[in-house]
Fold these 2 entries.
Entry 1:
Amino acid sequence: MADKGGKGSAFPGGNDLGSLKGKSAAALKESHVEIELSDSDGEGFIETPLPSSKGKSSAEAKSGKKRVSFSSLKTSGDLGKSSNVGKAGGKGSLPQATPLEPLIAETQLKLELELPKGARLLMDCEAAEVLQDIHEHMTVLSQDPKIKMPESFSKAFQYSKVNDHYNNAKAVRQPFSIGPLTQVSRTLKLNAVTDGEICLMGNVCPENVDEVYALIPSLKGNIEKNEVALKDAIASLAKFRTPK
Amino acid sequence: MFFHITLERNMQLHPRHFGPHLRDKLVAKLMKDVEGTCSGRHGFVVAITGVEDIGKGLIREGTGFVTFPVKYQAVVFRPFKGEILEAVVTMVNKMGFFAEAGPVQIFVSNHLIPDDMEFQSGDMPNYTTSDGSVKIQKDSEVRLKIIGTRVDATEIFCIGTIKDDFLGVINDPGVTA
């Protein structure tokens, strides 16, 4: 990413050190506007998450393929410049207030692709049930009181409990497709709503279709087909929702 | 997101554990070795839910240890790009804030916090809107979207955003207090 960072946008005036460095480095060869857009060294702070997508992002930027990822949010290329994402985020610094929407709207959920073979997604409410069982039977399972559950178990268990918005996890499954197919789930399946998207909907517990489309933009591609089915699913979910 | 998956592992067992409780010993060792670990491919192995199969043991020459191939099922937690998570803020600074969703750490840069939220330093650093109606500080609950992940051998780090519709603070401890 460091190589891309030279051209890239990303980090605003908020980071004083970054902008100073950016200026000094770029001032020698580029115009004033370019200086502001470029920010070669300021991104040290979140530079680290990038390496994994380095190859991809540069390749895609070149090929003009607009796949949005974190890298495209902060890297250069035509994407970065045209959208001004980095700058837009900057508190009170330069250019236009930003079109982050186009980028995010293009974000696709790649859940299924990244899942290992044979994996079955669980909604948070289902995970909460499974982990609750394990928590209760912990000593029986291990048959050794010395064995304690690791910290990540407690954290994940706590997380799943907090995010369990429903009073009946098994019922929550039904409007969706992960369990036995019901009418609604069949419609969702037919309209190419993936398990990942369904699970995410279950976790988010949306109140209306607008919320679903905003949070899961990949569903927008099939809006004519899936809107009715999604409305039904949301209505079914609302029945099981625990009042906050 | 949580998922359920079948995994395999070769377990080495010392001969002193052999006997009628060999299976229990193997399972106990498996739990100890695997639960709480994190791999880039699968994420955090939260808990083992069952052991599907234990294959025939193979004596390792020279040591006496026996290797058993064990097939087991586990609940795994892994964040994905594009996923929406509800996380608890753990630290706020001028660069952004860190939040925790289960075992996963997420950083939200100040570029990915809405423009109308300004950083306020002090005893309890926070991001606040100009009218003071929304505040992000330690222990606030936020709904965020994962836009990037970095995986290494034992940890997963995420970058998130709250700069979009339907994202942001869900529960502000400052308001309820």
Note: Chain A has two domains: 2-107, 124-240.
Entry 2:
Amino acid sequence: MSDPIRKYLNLNDPKLIKWYWIVGLIVLGIIMAVDLAVHHHAHFAKDGIDIDTTPEFYPLYGFAASFFLVIVAKTLSIALKRKDSYYADD
Amino acid sequence: MQMTDLPPAFVLFAAAALLAFVRGKARWVIALAAPVLTLADAWAIIDIGASTVVPFMGYQINPVHVHAATPVFATIFCIMLGGGMLFALNQKRQVELPAAFVYAGGALGVCFSGDLISMFIFWEIMTLGSTVVIFSGRQEGSERSGLRYFGLHAVGGVLLLIGIVIVINQRMYAGEVDPLAFRHFHEMVSGWTSLSWESLGMWLVLIGMLINAGAPPFSAWIGDSYPEGSESGSVFLSAFTTKTAIFTLMVGFAGTELLIYLGLWMALYGIVYAILENDMRRILAYSIVNQVGFMMVGIGIGTELAIDGASAHAFAHIIYKALLLMSAGSVLYATGKRKCTELGGLYRTMPVTMWCGIIGALAISSFPLTSGFTTKSMIVAAVSEQGAVMADLGQSHNHLIVAWFLLEAASAGVFLHAGIKFPWFVFFQKDSGLRPPEVPWNMRTAMIIFAAFCVLLGVFPGPLYEILPYKGVAAKFGATVYSFEHVMQMLGLLLFSGLSFFVLLPMLKRTETISLDFDWIWRKGVPRFWNEVAMPILQTLNRAQKAIFDFFPGAGSESRLPPELARRIGTNWAVSVPVLTITMMLLLYLVVYFVVPMLT
């Protein structure tokens, strides 16, 4: 791999990380802006469910779902977590 | 006899036998040519719709038969085997490659089985092959994990066999023309809620298949055994067992509503466990459960679009999952390390492995222009489509609404747990100080070919749609998959899932831990019960028994076995002890046989 590319992959460089956050947030902003222009069809229109047609439903749902799953996982880990030698100890 | 009279699996078995003996260049030729030959043979059979009936132990079995889903599964099994072989060929292990051929042969054999007996035989061959693949992993835990794998699948196999015997008998009794046929169990679709003795056989068949699919509570074996294969072993393992189970469920139980719920559970379970996991290949193993969950939902829905979606997804999944495990396998090959806590920063010296891993990660997340986008979306679309159909018919379909929202959430979660987590912790994150060299050319080539497949299937899904069970339905779906609306929905879902990954990164830091699962019951619970409860009770009983027998004449020391013999058979009991025990059991039998009926 050529050195310029490698330089941009060094994610331990705080300056670079800051730039990536800025670029990333701009991309997310563009997605949200474009989403306003999309006409979303309801998947369960016949049941009167149209939450999936509200603007920004998919970005918000994607974020919330992932966030929730991590919280669920972390909560469960309180009970389920063991040292990785747990089964080998016998 | 023509080639098309023989199950294509036999080509692979023959190759396995040859591979066990040859060395050097010939090994390469056989390993790479056999999958191609098998694919050609499979398609010759598919094209003429061949069906062969042969006598076997007094039955007429049908080991060459083309089901609707056979073309797509047979094709991907052959492609997978070829790619996996290319990846594996530089390694020294002699047993793994023949075992992988046997394993793949079993899987392919199931795809062409027209009757339950052939299906069962190939199913068991698959179990044997895969167990040997795990054993030849020679990881720290390979042996014990392989034994657990074999034990569970042996139990599953026995349940399947009992189920098959019951089903065949019921069908014979009912006077069916073809009682052995491996066909749809339509009786289950209409009445799966009624657990009755009549449906026992079908339930056992279903449970046997579900164990192989990794359905709850048997999901843990995937995370337990797959990471114990070798670098290449787990690539093979990821492809065949669960997807063969998906194939059999598709043939036997399409439209069985229970599968929707099991599938949803699996889709979410896989994410939660992968989030908590530290072993890079176990992360990928859990995400197999997650992906198979999507397929199970498709089968549970059972409409033409859903079946197409599940089979297309299986096809795409085998490729990107193999690619991801090749990438992880390459890292293991180069560094000898498997834990995220010990890895990181490998982008510096393993660019091909990294880029291929990233492409696989994008494909599993179903990013637009990758294979996941053109296949998994079909399952999700089938859920809402069936919801609309049932709404028109006035049928209750709340479960489909819930399923749709959960699948969308799971789609977002895939990006989180596999799409970003795997590449991030292995190739970026902190600098682990490791500077391993890139892997040999054959491993790189295999990864590049599969990465190309991931993109090609995303951009030109047409040829794949052509070989699906209902190609007209798939083609119609293909016309809308790249609609602006759909692409934006997916991008919104995935990129914002990515945002939550980086927002929550401190919470996702890896620790050297594992997570308990239902397998705790047989790995810890049962042994603990045996040692702490059952053994003390038995020992007490033993003492009591001794006391009783010491009471009887003839149980004294002179009638005991000679010391040498006692040592060899591991007991120093007098012969009279078993004799007395048997007498008492006979007495008990008489009591039960004669007295109990009198009382009732």
Note: Chain B has a mean pLDDT of 90.
